Automatic annotation (TrEMBL), chain A:
The lineage of its organism: Bacteria, Pseudomonadati, Bacteroidota, Bacteroidia, Marinilabiliales. This is NADP oxidoreductase. It comes from Draconibacterium sediminis. Gene3D superfamilies: Glutaredoxin (3.40.30.10).
UniProtKB/TrEMBL annotation, chain B:
The lineage of its organism: Bacteria, Pseudomonadati, Bacteroidota, Bacteroidia, Marinilabiliales. Keywords: 4Fe-4S, Iron, Iron-sulfur, Metal-binding. It comes from Draconibacterium sediminis. This is NADH dehydrogenase. One of its GO terms (molecular function) is 4 iron, 4 sulfur cluster binding. It holds the Pfam family NADH_4Fe-4S.
Amino acid sequence: MTKIKSLADLRKMKEEAQSKIKLRENSTNPDQVVQVKVGMATCGIASGAKDTMKYFVEELEQEAIDAVVTQTGCMGYCYAEPTVEVKLPGKEPLVYGHVNKEKVHEIIDKYIKRGELVDGIIPVSFKTIDD
Amino acid sequence: MTDYKMHLLICGGTGCKASESDEIKNRLNQLIGDLGLADEVQVVLTGCFGFCEKGPIIKVLPDNTFYVQVTPNDVVEIVEEHIVKGRPVKRLLYTDPNSAEQISDSKGMDFYKKQIRIALKNCGFINPENIDEYIARDGYQALGKCLSELTPEEVIKEVKDSGLRGRGGGGFPTGLKWEITKNVENDQKYVVCNADEGDPGAFMDRSILEGDPHSVLEAMAICGYCIGADKGLVYIRAEYPLAIQRLKIAIKQAEEYGLIGDDILGTGFNFHIELRYGAGAFVCGEETALIHSMEGLRGEPTFKPPFPSVSGYMGKPTNVNNVETFANIPVILNKGAEWFSKIGTEKSKGTKVFALAGKINNVGLIEVPMGTTLREVIYDIGGGIKDGKEFKAVQTGGPSGGCLTKDSLDIPIDYDNLLASGSMMGSGGMIVMDESDCMVSIAKFYLDFTLEESCGKCTPCRVGNKRLYELLDKITQGKGEEQDIEKLKDLSVVIKDTALCGLGQTSPNPVLSTISNFEHEYKAHVHDGKCPAGQCKSLLRYDIVEDLCTGCTLCFRNCPVGAISGERRAPHFIDQTLCIKCGVCFEKCKFNAITLT
């Protein structure tokens, strides 16, 4: 390990170190950041949900967007796997189907960054016991 | 750099380690490795989460799932269901005892709702053996700011303005202590961290050192800068092996980064930290005894003044602060005195960590703002009394403190209010008692402790406490006499007035406070030969009611000493000379035929 020589160095180091536990910090206040849930059941994984999740994590990290990317169980839209639910702070969650690498890019670029809706939204057609 | 998609935080405090959290961690790592997920899932051993009642605890992030009472055998299910498939393992979630609902996010738990974590902010969040995670949480920023941008006077002013008072129990203003030590002229001064946590039931200092050791090191260096010391010593009891190990790792890492040592952050300030081990004597928590013990002398207190600030370790000015006090310092300097002083009551600022123990549902470590009421602590956070029994009293301040009754449940907890109601803050141990606890026995328990821990130097403590203990013992044996209660009071007052150090001056407190709150219980022992709580065995008598006894022989078969006799289908009898009053017959009888008087 090298010595930290000044306060400025220490501050720089803090920023680097912060990225490693950012996931923990963001998870403590998930409602204030972008939440992405990737359907990760057998059908999802078979259709490439693991890669989809990886793209999300990488690209959000690259764009320096605070987000919590989690996996969830089967959402039921097996015809449209991989499916992803995206929830912006203070907004209703949206579910996208057929999310491949290009779609991930489009969702982040248009919906998460600019709030514009993107094709491929699966309308919610059911009620949950909480409704 | 690897981007982990999931973090698993496992409690690595002493309590959870005793429940095999190391084994859980190893199995998790192995399984995750086998599945090829080692690059995606990070397993972190953290400090104490505080919810010791339900340990070992695993927290899964990013979805914030809080698993309780996990065993090594649950690991496979957690990995296969939650980590691979994203389905939380429902049976390991915490169940709210009131609503019977399962809560997956710890923020929804009553235990955490009213807490504000300052001293414990990193406990259960970071890996205490990784300095980078501490740095990521503003670690050493306060030290850097003080050394580079502030004068010692400015730092001391900030600490004074924050209103922080000593968390070891005395409640002396921390900033003032620093100022006094600073103003004493000397070529060598010392900073000492008092980690000789000795109150029965208190374990906050241990948990801070185990979960966030760097916060204490950073604060010691800041204190050194303020008072003009280049050497810090942590006096820690050898019974805390895990805390010692984590401290050693922390010191080594901080030295490697140059955050402790010579020319810290290029400012020319030098500060070195060493450990000193105590043998676990209660009196060594008293600062003069602590200093003598560090010097290699007998751990006996000496008269004050001179205070350690003037003449302490090796006769040099020494600033002694407690672990929890130090843990507050970096946060105060990062967030500002004004922010800190908004929390708490008028004269007691900030938060206090309490160790909940005894007959309470949620045994554990909590941190609440000063001014929180006992009721909130015991019922909301602590989840109420075990087995639905009635609350009787709570002992605060350990063997030096006193007990508080139902009447005190609504006073806001701070230094002054606790003193006014006949107890004290102490280091923050809270032992909750229910209706089945005998207050005379409680007083005897604490006296037994002080008797054991008295260093024997002064007569009032050495002999006086022994006599107090004998009187209490006599009363619990049912041999108490009319004048004994008065004798207890008189002797207590004399010991308080004449003992040399804090240990002796406070040792009669449990006696005085139980007498003033529960005199009727003492009288019941002395006058009626009865123990109302049914705890003093010598005063109990089990009898079999002839009319109700069916002669089922259940009591006869279960009596461990053969004190019960009788024919099948005929009433049985207890031989009082053989009976050891264990109560087994009372519990076993299905016909309520056994009475307890």
